[in-house]
């Protein structure tokens, strides 16, 4: 019994015998800090799609239907169109239009098609009333998240547009927040591949330059792990690179609308300044409309933002 107790005692006092008592708490604290820092780095890299796209927010959003919002969308009528993405994944499009017997069928070459790519969180049905407001102002027709998959989905949507509308249609691609990155990437692919109908306008609502730039902007503290994780990113959504591809394509010019919210609590103001600088340097045709006092998700929930999009579309189509 004496020998066994002595063995346990020596094991229990190994740390205290190796280090002065005053150093034991700092060593334990430092070890816990390093372990937590490493754990957060690992989890951020492994679950980056969950963090970026937030498919679980808000709760029950995925169970909402177009019919739930039909009354608040009138006179715009929405329907679900099910298609397959380039990789075979089943996806659904929300297709909206304003039926008007007096107008008759649209004239060939006078069709206006707006492809909307939403930001993260939520689902399409809750955003339909907002989109309906823009359409009413225009009075015109209109699996698992990953960058690769979403790029294929956007391409499939544009292929569906090409199949169902005239090659002379006026096509606009509109993206909000991370959707602006998706929109610019889709537009760059469409333009460089010389697909039809040609993209007349690109609308970037509360955009950022890239995921990497957002990491550095949101976490400037050098002791935090996040700013060092961009080499491990699987999702980049680099609008700056996409704008350069559009400029270098040699295709017909694409009109660009930059629409930041002046009180954006998510995207720092330096991001829109950088995108504007890129547009100027590339000599792209662009305009900027600030939505005064709007937060990140409020730019087009406000009348000023809705009118800004409608006026931009009208101006481009009338040229």
TrEMBL record:
Single GO term (MF): palmitoyl-(protein) hydrolase activity
Membrane-crossing segments per the record: 21-39
Key words of the record: Membrane, Transmembrane, Transmembrane helix
Annotated Gene Ontology cellular component terms: membrane
SUPFAM superfamilies reported in the protein's UniProt record: alpha/beta-Hydrolases (SSF53474)
InterPro entries: AB_hydrolase_fold
Name this polypeptide is given: Serine aminopeptidase S33 domain-containing protein
Source organism per UniProt: Friedmanniomyces endolithicus
